[in-house]
Amino acid sequence: MAGSGAPRVIAIDGPAGSGKSTVARAVADRLGLHYLDTGAMYRGVAYAVLRAGIDPTDAGPVADVARNVTLAVTRSHCMVDGEDASTAIRGPEVTGAVSAVAANPEVRLEMVARQRAWVLERGGGVMEGRDIGSVVFPDAELKVYLTASPEVRARRRAAEDPGVNVDSVAADIRRRDEADSSRDASPLVAADGARVMDTSELTVDGAVDAIVEMFR
Ligand code: DC
């Protein structure tokens, strides 16, 4: 195990388009910490499920895939059973299937165990997701819950992919917010003790500065 004492974790949670990934990566760079995108893990499982021709809502077989799949999520890549799925996990098929996969309690158990192991191997890091501060690391040294208005979030997502239409992105964000917040297993909520930050009017640097300041 790297380092000594309790692992130092910064938990960054929030809905799609809240600026989580950009901000979490920059915070990790600024502080020289490891970074893990836990959403990429759920997307990797969804990719493996679709590849195997399994219905994403078929709980038992989906849980089996989650327990058996080899996932290697790095800063820039997501390898699924040795295959580079970095682009495919951001595509519409995986995006359409991932909420059902992430709502599966057995999938969550497996991913949470892998996420905790990731931290213990490294002695800490910046983790972003939906349930890091509430479930994965409730004792994280710093918990931040990022939000932004639905309009701003849809515009940000559309800007990442100029081919898409803002209205359809907004509809997709609303659908996923609803699914992620109303599921029984670890719904998306601001964790106890989380610092809530609305990034609608903030620049990336502004958000990163504020988080780094809170951590120090
Ligand atoms: O952050 P993202 O859009 O890449 O997340 C993909 C999906 O995974 C989304 O439906 C929320 C879910 N997710 C989750 O349930 N728990 C996490 N810790 C991270 C993501």
Keywords:
3-stranded antiparallel β-sheet, 5-stranded parallel β-sheet, 51% helix, alpha/beta, Rossmann fold, binds 2'-deoxycytidine-5'-monophosphate, 216 residues
Structure description:
There is one protein chain. With 216 residues, this protein is an alpha/beta fold. It has one domain: Rossmann fold (3-Layer(aba) Sandwich), CATH 3.40.50. 51% of the residues lie in helices and 15% in strands. Strands 2-6-1-7-8 form a five-stranded parallel sheet. Strands 3-4-5 form a three-stranded antiparallel sheet, with helices on one face. A hairpin with a 2-residue loop joins strand 4 and strand 5. Helix 1 packs across helix 9, helix 2 crosses helix 4 and helix 7 packs across helix 8. The longest helix is centred in the middle third of the chain and has 18 residues. It is globular. The model has no long low-confidence stretch (mean pLDDT 92). The protein binds 2'-deoxycytidine-5'-monophosphate. The site of 2'-deoxycytidine-5'-monophosphate has 13 residues, from helix 2, helix 4 and helix 8.
